[in-house]
Design goal:
By secondary structure, this protein is mainly beta. The protein has one helix at about 1-25, and strands spanning about 25-30, 40-45, 55-60, 65, 80, 85-90, 90-95, 100-105, 105-120, 125-130, 135-140, 155, 160, 165-175, 180-185, 190-195, 200-210, 215-230, 230-240, 245, 265-270, 275-280, 290-295, 305, 310-320. The chain has a single domain (about 30-320), classed as Jelly Rolls. It contains one helix and 25 strands. Strand 2 and strand 3 (about 55-60) form a beta hairpin.
Amino acid sequence: MKIKTIILCSIISALTLLPSAARAQKIEYLKYGDFNNWVTRIIKESGIIGGHEKKVYEIGPSTTITGNKAYINMGGSPWGTSNVYAKVMLVVKASNAVEPCVRSGKNLCAKLCTKLEKVKALGTIDMEVMVAGSIFLGQMIEPVTSTKNPYSKMDMGVPYTKRPKSLVLDYRVDMPSTNTRTKATGLSAKKTLQGRDHAVVFVYLQRRWEDAKGNIHAKRVATGGHKFTSASKWVNGYKIPLVYGDASSHPDLKWLGLRGKSNAYYARNSKNKLKPVIEEGWDDPNATPTHVVVMISSGAGEPFVGTEGLNLYVDNVGFEF
């Protein structure tokens, strides 16, 4: 009788544990985070730089848009990209460093490229700009009219109130065997910089609020991130843990400090005006966030700096609970 009781208790205990184990492994994939659907934009560049038609891709429902039109996220897609339609001093230029890529069969992924965009006028190269392919949760504001303060052209982050354990994704990396980077802003001659570049992914949970003047403030609820420093084949279901509360002393997250006035991301306030999001400090580990920021890039984050041929492929992006 005693043995039967012990066995019965063991079974009950095991059954009791099953729901929590299942919950711990639950993954909620982000909309369009399988990257099997893309918007194809056909943009005609100005005649002075060749007048070519250029394909520019966005993450959203499968459709094609022809014409030089500012893009607004379609189909409820939360994704913005570094691909842009620019119109500087009436000259139209398109840039594309994020594109669909066949992973297997009909399954697509996102390919984020680092490359030099060359602008030719009247048959000569007038300028070169280094572009790192990036995807993020938010919206690129078009048309882009200058290279000044790139973050001010992005509405970064989307509303989000959940508390996941980690960000999950599949990835692959092409990493050139070089320890130099190129800086090319288009405004001066390109320069060679020492130091190896790397691809990155990071996620912030923020609790935002707006003051009476429409300025946006935030506290950082949670932080996670990873640097891709070497070439790799596909890695599936890679988990990037989120650290809640103060992450300033975490050895792997010191590069993801608070973003203040000098490096703030931007977002739209209640009056639909873009404002810098000033992080005032680290929040309580038990705080409920209001927004999530996710950035995935084939460059380390410094504008107009990168290594040609550094490509990051991503697929199946979601949150684990």
